[in-house]
Design a protein that fits this description.
By secondary structure, this protein is an alpha+beta fold. The protein contains 23 helices and 20 strands. The strands form 2 sheets. Strands 11, 12, 13, 14, 15, 16, 17, 18, 19 and 20 form a 10-stranded mixed beta sheet that branches.
C-alpha cells in the first residue's frame, strides 16, 4: 500500500514538472484517433445515405427506361419478386428564379405504391383534391430553393408553360442526388401529366424491379435486356445509385486514413522517444526507488502507468471528438460502433507497446542513487570531424558532436520529424492538385465555361446568339445520351461534343484524340467497367441503334466515376444528334463567364438556359480544411519529438555547461551549442521527409485517381517555392522552440562537479 501511494505521488510530481509535454502528448494522440475514426466512418458503407433511403422506400434493385409501356411479363423473370410501375415520365424544363433546370415529370398514383415509394420528408403526398400539386425530390428542391406551397413553373417540350404548386418534398433511392445526377425528379398525378404532355411519343416509361438476391441483379438485368431489346432505352441498378450518392466521402476518407495511419506511426515513435527520454532523465529517481525496495516489475509498471495514461487519455478524448464530429455531420446512426471500438483498442495497444520498452528498460535501473548520470562516450561522428576540418566556431563544433552522442535517440528524433514532414509534403501536393483543377479547368475536361440549352428558342437561334457574343471563342454543339453497355445490362454515359474533324479538346493523357467517325476517348472508370484498353472496339446501343467505336485515348474524367465515353457528334445517328441538346462555349482568355451569361440572356430575351460549368475543385473544397487540420496534428507530433530531443540533450550535457563557461564560452555560445545539437537533427529529419514526400506525392494522387475512375495524370507536386517555405518554416519553428530551453540552461548557474 505504501509503495502504491509513493508511486502515485511520484507520478503526480513528475507530471506537474512537465505539464506542457504531457498536454502535447495527449493532444497528439487525440488528433490521430479523431482522424482515424473520421476516416473509418467516411469509408464505411453505412455513411452512404443510399442504404437508409433504400430501406425506407422499399426500393427497386433495377430501373428500366423504355420508349413504350413494356408488354412483357416482367414478373415472370426468375429472381424478380415485385414490380414498381410502369410509370409514364415526360421531360420538362423547370423555370425558377431566373434559372432553368432539366427535370423529369413522373406520373404517380395518389396511393403510394408498395415498392419504390418515395418517402415524404416535408408536406404531403399527391392528392386528387389538388391536381396541380407536385412532389419534388429533396436534392432537386434544395437546389431550386423550393418550399411547401411555392409555385413550380415548368415548360413542356411544346413550349407551353404550366404552374404547379409544391405539395411535398420527398426522398428517393432510385437515382443519385441532383445536380450530380440529372435530370431532377418530380412527381405529379397521371391526369396532370396528360394535361402537360398529351403526346405519348414524347414520353418514356419507367419500371422498377425488386429482386430476391441483390447480388443477382446483373443476371436479372441481362434477362431484361434480352426480353425488351427493341424497346429498352437504358437500364441501371442499385449499385450505380449507391456509387452516385457517395458524394466524395471515399476520397476524403482515404486522405484521412492515410494521414491517420502514418500519423499513428509517428505518434508511436514520439511516445517511445518521450518515454525513453524521461527514463534517462529520471535514472537517479528510479535508482532511489530501487534502493527503497521497489522491484523491477513495480518500477516498470510505474513508468507504464505514467506514460501510458497520457496516451490512453488522448485515445479517449480523440474517440469522443471523432464520434461527436461524425454524429453531427452524418447522424448518430451513421457512426458504426465496431470500427470505432477497433480503432480505440488498436491505438491503445500501440500506445502501450510504444511506452512498454522504455518502461521495461527503466525497471532494470541499478539501485545506486549516488551514481551521476554521465553522457555516453564514443567516437566523433563524421559530421563533427568535418566541422573541425573546416574550422567552424567552437560552439558549432561542440553542437555537432552533441547531435549524435546517442545514436538511437538521434535516429528516432530525425525519423520522427521526417514522417510528419513527408505527410505535410503530400498534403501540400493534394492542395496543389486542387489549385491546378481551379486554375486550369481545361485539364479536367472543362475547356468550356458555359453551357447553353435552347430553352424556348430554336437550337439554330441559340447557336447564332452564342456565336455573336464578342467573348465567345468557340461553340461546340453537344448531346449527352445513355447507352447500353455490351454484356453489362447497364447504361453508361455517351458524351458527344463537337465533331470528329473539330473535336472538343478533351484532356487526353494516354493515347490520342479521336480524328474520325467511329473513334472515341473514354475515362478510366469506363475502361475498367468494360474491361477494355486503348485500341479495342466496343459496341454500345443508343436508343436501339448500335454505336460501334474504337477507343483511341484515355481522358481525365471527373464525372460519373469516369464511366463516360466521348465521341464527336457526327458519330451518333441523326435521330440522337439532331438537334443538339446544348452548346458548350469556350470563352476568350480573360472573359468573365458571369458577364457573358448575362449578355446571352439579355440578347435572347431570357429564352435561353445558360449555366456555368461546375469545377471539381469546388466540390472538394472541404479537403483544404482537412489538410490544414491534419498538418496541425502533424506539427504537434514533430513538436513532441523536438521537446524530447531538447530535454535529452540538456540532460546529457547539464554538467558540461559549467565547464563550457569555464572554458570561456559566453551564454550565447553555450546556447548556440545546445541549439546546434538539436537543429542538426531537425534539418536532417525535415529534409529527408520533404524529399520522401516529393518522391511519392504524384504517384499516390494518381493512384487514387485511377482507383476512383478519374484516371491517372492529375497529380501535382507542390511548387519549389511552396516546399521551400514549408521546409524553412518547419526548421525555423523547430529552432525557435529549441531556443527556449537552451536559453534558460545557458543563463542558469550550474556548479562544476568533480567526477
Amino acid at each position: 500500500m505504501s509503495a502504491t501511494l509513493a508511486g502515485s505521488r511520484w507520478i503526480k510530481a513528475d507530471l506537474r514538472a512537465r505539464k506542457g509535454q504531457a498536454v502535447l502528448t495527449v493532444l497528439t494522440v487525440a488528433g490521430i484517433v479523431a482522424a482515424l475514426i473520421t476516416a473509418a466512418t467516411l469509408l464505411e458503407e453505412g455513411t452512404n445515405p443510399w442504404r437508409s433511403l433504400f430501406a425506407q422506400t422499399d426500393g427497386a434493385h433495377v430501373w428500366l427506361y423504355t420508349d413504350d409501356s413494356p408488354q412483357a411479363d416482367l414478373s415472370g423473370i426468375d429472381g424478380v419478386t415485385q414490380i414498381a410501375g410502369p410509370y409514364r415520365s415526360a421531360p420538362v424544363t423547370v423555370a425558377q428564379e431566373g434559372k432553368k433546370e432539366p427535370a423529369a415529370l413522373r406520373a404517380m398514383p395518389a396511393t403510394p405504391p408498395l415498392v419504390a415509394h418515395p418517402v415524404v420528408a416535408e408536406g404531403r403526398w399527391l392528392d386528387p383534391s389538388q391536381p396541380d400539386g407536385v412532389v419534388v425530390e429533396r436534392s432537386f428542391a434544395t437546389s431550386l430553393r423550393l418550399r411547401i406551397g411555392a409555385p413550380f413553373t415548368i415548360i413542356a417540350l411544346s413550349g407551353k408553360r404550366h404552374t404547379l404548386y409544391v405539395r411535398g418534398i420527398a426522398d428517393s433511392a432510385e437515382q443519385g442526388f441532383y445536380p450530380q445526377w440529372t435530370p431532377g425528379l418530380a412527381y405529379v398525378l397521371p391526369v396532370m401529366l396528360d394535361r402537360i404532355e398529351p403526346m405519348l411519343g414524347r414520353s418514356e416509361w419507367v419500371t422498377g424491379l425488386r429482386v430476391a438476391d441483390p447480388d443477382a441483379t446483373q443476371v436479372v438485368s441481362q434477362r431484361v435486356v434480352v426480353m425488351l431489346e427493341d424497346k429498352l432505352q437504358r437500364v441501371y441498378t442499385w449499385r450505380e445509385v449507391r456509387a452516385a450518392m457517395e458524394l466524395d466521402n471515399r476520397l476524403l476518407g482515404t486522405l484521412l486514413a492515410l494521414f491517420g495511419v502514418v500519423g499513428l506511426v509517428a505518434a508511436a515513435l514520439a511516445l517511445a522517444n518521450a518515454a525513453g527520454g524521461r527514463v534517462l532523465a529520471q535514472l537517479r529517481d528510479l535508482a532511489t526507488l530501487k534502493s527503497m525496495g521497489f522491484t523491477r516489475g513495480q518500477i516498470a509498471l510505474l513508468l507504464l502507468v505514467e506514460h501510458g495514461a497520457l496516451g490512453l487519455l488522448g485515445v479517449a478524448i480523440g474517440a469522443v471528438v471523432g464520434w461527436g464530429v461524425m454524429a453531427a455531420m452524418l447522424g448518430a446512426t451513421s457512426v458504426a460502433p465496431i470500427p470505432v471500438l477497433a480503432i480505440v483498442a488498436g491505438t491503445a495497444l500501440v500506445v502501450l507497446a510504444a511506452v512498454g520498452l522504455p518502461a521495461w528498460r527503466g525497471g532494470r535501473t541499478p539501485p545506486i542513487p549516488a551514481a551521476p548520470a554521465l553522457p555516453p562516450r564514443g567516437r566523433l561522428s563524421r559530421l563533427a570531424r568535418l566541422a573541425l576540418l573546416v574550422r567552424l566556431p567552437p560552439a558549432l563544433v561542440l553542437g555537432t558532436r552533441d547531435a549524435f552522442t546517442r545514436r538511437v535517440p538521434a535516429f528516432l528524433t530525425a525519423f520522427g520529424l521526417a514522417v510528419p514532414m513527408m505527410m505535410v509534403t503530400i498534403g501540400l501536393g493534394v492542395w496543389a492538385t486542387l489549385d491546378n483543377f481551379a486554375d486550369h479547368p481545361e485539364q479536367v475536361g472543362q475547356h468550356a465555361s458555359l453551357y447553353v440549352r435552347p430553352g424556348k428558342a430554336e437550337p439554330a437561334e441559340a447557336e447564332r446568339v452564342a456565336k455573336l457574343d464578342e467573348d465567345v471563342e468557340t461553340v461546340y454543339p453537344g448531346t449527352d445520351v445513355d447507352a447500353l453497355a455490351p454484356g453489362m445490362a447497364r447504361s453508361v454515359r455517351v458524351r458527344a461534343i463537337g465533331s470528329s474533324t473539330e473535336p472538343y479538346p478533351f484532356p487526353v493523357v494516354e493515347g490520342r484524340m479521336y480524328g474520325r467517325q467511329g473513334e472515341a476517348v473514354a475515362g478510366q472508370g469506363l475502361l475498367d467497367l468494360l474491361g477494355i484498353k486503348i485500341g479495342d472496339r466496343v459496341r454500345l446501343t443508343v436508343g436501339g441503334t448500335p454505336l460501334i467505336v474504337r477507343i483511341v485515348g484515355r481522358t481525365v474524367e471527373p464525372d460519373l466515376d469516369g464511366e463516360v465515353i466521348s465521341v464527336g457528334l457526327d458519330s451518333l445517328a441523326a435521330k440522337d444528334s439532331v438537334p443538339p441538346e446544348f452548346y458548350a462555349l469556350a470563352l476568350k482568355k480573360g472573359a468573365d463567364p458571369a458577364e457573358v451569361r448575362g449578355r446571352l440572356l439579355a440578347e435572347s430575351a431570357e429564352s435561353l438556359d445558360v449555366q456555368a460549368a461546375v469545377n471539381p475543385a469546388d466540390r472538394l473544397s472541404i479537403i483544404r480544411v482537412v489538410i490544414v487540420a491534419l498538418i496541425a496534428v502533424l506539427m504537434l507530433i514533430g513538436l513532441a519529438n523536438l521537446l524530447t530531443a531538447s530535454a535529452l540533450g540538456l540532460r546529457d550535457h547539464a554538467f558540461d555547461l559549467a565547464v563550457l563557461k569555464a572554458m570561456g564560452l559566453t551564454p550565447r555560445q553555450v546556447m548556440a551549442t545546445l541549439v546546434t545539437g538539436t537543429g542538426l537533427l531537425v534539418v536532417l529529419g525535415v529534409g529527408a521527409g520533404a524529399a520522401a514526400g516529393m518522391s511519392v506525392v504524384t504517384g499516390l494522387i494518381d493512384l487514387q485517381g485511377h482507383t476512383s475512375g478519374v484516371g491517372a495524370g492529375i497529380g501535382r507536386a507542390p511548387s519549389a517555392l511552396t516546399l521551400a517555405v514549408a521546409v524553412v518554416g518547419a526548421v525555423g519553428t523547430a529552432l525557435a522552440v529549441a531556443l527556449i530551453p537552451a536559453r534558460r540552461a545557458a543563463r542558469a548557474q550550474v556548479p562544476v562537479t568533480s567526477r
